[in-house]
Model the fold of this input.
Amino acid sequence: MNEPEVIVPGRANGEGMIIRYRTRGGTEVFGLPLPNIHGNQSWDLGPTWCYLVTGPKTILIDAGRMGNIGILERHLRTIGKGFAGIDAVIVTHGHEDHDGQLAEVIAESGAELWAHPIYRDLISYHPDVTEGAPHPEYPGSCRACTMPFTYVQGNCLPYHRKRSGLRVDRIVREDSPMNGFGFLFTPGHSPDSMCITLEGEIVFTGDTVLPGITPHPSMARTFEVNRLILPEEYRGQNQLYGLMNYIRSLRKVGSSEYTASLLAFPAHRLFWEGRFNLYRTKDRVREIIQFHLDRFRAILEIASGGPVSIEYICERHFTAAQLEGFGRLLARNEVMAHLEVLKSYGDVTWDGRPEGSVQSSGSFRTLEAIADFMPPL
Done:
C-alpha cells in the first residue's frame, strides 16, 4: 500500500510531522498531529492525528487536545490553509484529546460541527437527573467519573465548560453519507465513537482501531447512570457502553464490505518509532479481538485459585510500569470491563464492586463467544 507523503518531518513518534495522502479520486488528506499530554502526563499514545480533507468542502476530522491551537494554526499555514477555510469539523468521539479545543477551532473558523446523535447529550450538564450517578454535577460523558476531584478540578473542568456551549449543526447518521463521507457507529471505547469512510478508499478510525495499542473500553454499568439523559432511541437496551459493545463494533468494522479492506488512518500512532503504521482494517481488528481473548483467558487463570481481589488481578496481570500513577486506576477499570463480560457469560462470580472478590466458575463460555466475533480471513 502507498505511504503518505511526508511534507514536514518530525519526531520518531510523529509529533511535528505533516503528511499528505491523495485518494484515487484526487482528494487530498493532510495529517496534522497535535501533542497529546494531559495533566503533565504523557499517555504514551503519541500525538493525536487530526485530518484535514479538501474537496467541495474542507473538513477537519477531530480538533485535538486543549492548548494546541497555535500548533494547529501553524500546521494549517504550512499547507497553505487557515481556519477560515474550514467548512466543518467532524468529531470521531467526545474525548478530550479529540474535541478538547473544538470550541476554539469553531470560534476561529466559523465551521459547522458534525457529530454523533448523542454527542450533544454527552457534553451537556444534566444536574436534575441524579439517579445512580456518582457525579450528576459533571456533564453526561463524565457522570460516572472515577478520577480524583483534585485531578478533575485542575485538568477537566475548564474543558467541560468550554465544550458544553457547543452547538451541533448536523447530526450524522449511518445510512446518510455526506459530502463523500460515510459513517459507521462503533461504540464501546466511547458511546459516541464512530469511524468515517472517504470515497471507498480510506477509513478514519478514531480510537476504535489503533495500531500497536488498544483503547480502554468503557464500563457497561455506565449505561444505567446515563440512560435517562440519552435520546429515546438509545434508552431501551445498552447499545453504547462496555467491552462487549466494543467487540461488536470491532466485528462490524472488520466485517463490513464498506470498511474491512480500507486503508486505516487512526487517531494515534499513524507514525510511530520512525515508521508509518499502515494496515487494512480487518487485519488489525483480528489482532485486537485476539488481544482481548488473551486478557480474558489470563484473568480466568488468575481467578482460578480461589476468591481474589481486583487489585490482585492487576498486580499479577500488569507490569509495575503499567501500574504507575494513574496507570493503576486505568488497569482496575480495564479489569472490571473484562469482568463485566466474564460475569455475563457465567465464567466468574463478582458482585460488581471495585472492592468485591472475584472467583472463576471453571467455565470458559466467554472465550467461545468472543471467538465467534473474529472476522473471517
Observations:
- The chain has a mean pLDDT of 94.
- Residues 281-302 form the longest helix (22 residues).
